[in-house]
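Tutorial handout. Part one gives the primary structure; part two gives the three-dimensional structure as tokens.
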Amino acid sequence: MLQAEPINVVVTGAAGQIAYSLLYQLAAGSVFGPEQPINLRLLDIPPMMDVLQGVVMELEDLALSLLREVTPTADPAVAFKDAAAAFLVGAMPRKQGMERKDLLAANVKIFKVQGEALDKFARKDIKVLVVGNPANTNALICSHYAPSIPKENFTAMTRLDQNRAQAALAARLSVPVDKVENVIIWGNHSSTQFADASHAVATLPSGAKPVPAAINDNAWLNGEFLEKIQKRGAAVIAARKMSSAMSAAKAAGDHMKDWWIGTQPGKWVSMGVVSDGSYGIPRDIVFSFPVTVENHQFKIVQGLSISDFARSKLNITAKELEEERTEANSVLEQ
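Part two.
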């Protein structure tokens, strides 16, 4: 059997914590499949090049047959040349006392440069997953500066929130995590996100049951559960003194795998995608919706009922994303 040609996969912030957990998944075939060889392009800033050499040594020492070439670089032109997939992990982290608009200003510059490089050098069917925060608005900026690549080829990661929500519901119901399906994350990857279990289904020993009926506690679902998912990232930072890395890398792999290989029939996943106006969400913000994926193309799941409570939550997170877009535009105009 002829093996496929290697694809070029970019990871930015490649010397960082999330990338350190992500690179093994990519090299081992967990994301693009066990038959797909890859060339890794590792992009980071010049001061990180020595650290990156250590990462390259470790990748060699994995002795994995799917991993063909590894290229460490500080040059976006080298990194994005003919790339088929990109994980944009590198971003300016939020420092204590930093306003959100300061964070946006720093990141606008990073994602402008990367968008321009994608536009010039990458394949036009590249799949770009933005992990670095503020992920939704960073994805919007990046897409804006890569006009030759379709907008739907840029997505933001809310899969970590989905995985957190799925795990929390499974724990509450005392079932394995794969027995909970179709939980939804709506909106921004921020504390305004809405983790929605109203359409989720749990497979219990007695059979399949809607999650709200199985849990039978709307006050918990709309209160403690929702808040736990919104604040989980902060809780990890408080405990670990660093942000989520292993779980974020796993979620990035999950997101790209579903986008590349497709979702299972009857199941959907959450992705931050450019809004087309579905569910009354303003157009042209990157908003997390439930999607299905077939032939490398996602489709927003349509026709789900939205309660008054859910609508109020969707409005809050959409408003925040519109504000971020305005702030980002004002930085770009300076």
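Part three, for discussion. The chain has ten helices and 14 strands. The mean pLDDT is 95.
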